[in-house]
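User: What would this chain look like folded?
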Amino acid sequence: MEEAVDIKCVDYVAGLEVLFNLSPDLLCQFSTNGRILKANHAFKSALGYTDDDLIGKHFIDFVHPDDVEETMKQYGLLTRNETVLLFRNRYRCADEEYKSLSWNANQLPDGTLYASARDISDIIKATRIKERAEQKSRLSNERYKLVTAATKDIIWDWNLKTNKLKWGKSFETSFGYAVDIKSEPIDSWASHIHPEDKDYVLKSIYKAINSRDVKFWREEYRYLKADNSVAFIIDQGYIIRNHDKKAIRMVGAMQNITELKEKELRIIKQNEQLMDIAQINSHEIRRPVASILGLMQLLDKELMQNDSQRQLFDYLKTTTEELDAVIKRIIDKTAD
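Assistant: Here's the prediction, encoded as structure tokens.
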């Protein structure tokens, strides 16, 4: 009977040893002075060590220098028969790289310390990537807010999947329309385009969106403000496409060029006035000058009675020719 009990005990211990080595968790056993007594296959495989590398070595020799102090505090808890749960530190691998491990450990009845760990390096790496992405996103949003606050241009962001448009704050200050800064239907833009410009502007932007290789769109048009006045706009945007070259988003800026356009219109009007003056010069002023020159050609200077009259004739003819030349130069300059 006693022999049968011993056989069962041996089988039980052997079974525990099999489970110890087959466990996917990183399992190891330490002596009370911190020496490694044994490590399972998962532990050795994850860190790249053999039994010769581990057995008899102090576990602290494998801990990252920055984690030694906190690890020793947790080790002190274990030696006082307290359980340690979800403690994280970094273990040095055989290739000198470090892996982040999450530990659960306690003290066995025989006084040895038993610990299980999981490799959380990928989780930590993914968390850091996510945190960096979130931080980058926050910085990007902050920069966007600063840019929209600093520029007079009206920044816009069009989600082509939802057909919603997000405006910068300057949309309201520039045009007088109250907007939802989160997002609005695309009609919040299109409905205020000048009726005479609306058709060609919409055709232009959708042509750019539907042309798979087009990245930039630009158009000049008139935009109706809330007070019924008209603003002249240069609008341009960058089209973002997916891997199939389908447009999914468009970001851009509207620039109010009303003041510049008004100056341009004033210059055009001045040019028209100058052309009118040139027409007056060419028809109204030159006609009497040409008549005087024609009449003078009919006069015979030799028939004049004295030198004073002949000198007066020459002076009058020269002066009239000079006046004609001046009028011609004015006409030429105006035409240029």
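The longest helix spans residues 258-298. If you want, I can go into more detail on any region.
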